[in-house]
Amino acid sequence: MNEDIKKILVSKEQIQKRVQELGKQLTKDYAGKKVVMVVLLKGAAHFATDLSEAMDIPVRMEFMVVSSYGNSTQTSGCMIIRLDIQDNIAGKDVLLVDDIIDSGMTFANIKKMLQAKHPASIKTVALCDKKARRTNGFNADYSGFQIPDEFVVGYGLDYAGEYRNLPYIGILKPSVYARA
Known about the structure:
The protein has four helices and nine strands. By secondary structure, the protein is of the alpha/beta class.
């Protein structure tokens, strides 16, 4: 699997350090609030678990399964919701967590959908921020790492369902997805 990686962008140690920093910031910003972390699966599972452990406040977790990539390296622009949240988020502070903000379309669409459920607030958290691909001007409220316009995998990020279990974030060799 490692032979498919062109370059490691963010090491396991860098990820752990940044997740702890984000956890401390969120603990401070959300002290005394009823926080519901809405995790976009499958990609954000690793990040959300570590982030929630780094937060020193009570956090409820809800999950959504949303797809816009399929087996491609670029978003299709068409978002499919396969699983929606189950709990009532009205009056609660929502942290919408994803592995990457790319075009910004997923965050913008999900945030709009969640606003219809009347939370007290909604903020977004992304592990990786690929600003070069932004098409709608949407920015995450909290982000871990600014990354270049490369296709990345690891720490939850995948290509066609694979590579999520890498402990780092790396650039996938184009030869890997060219075979598809």
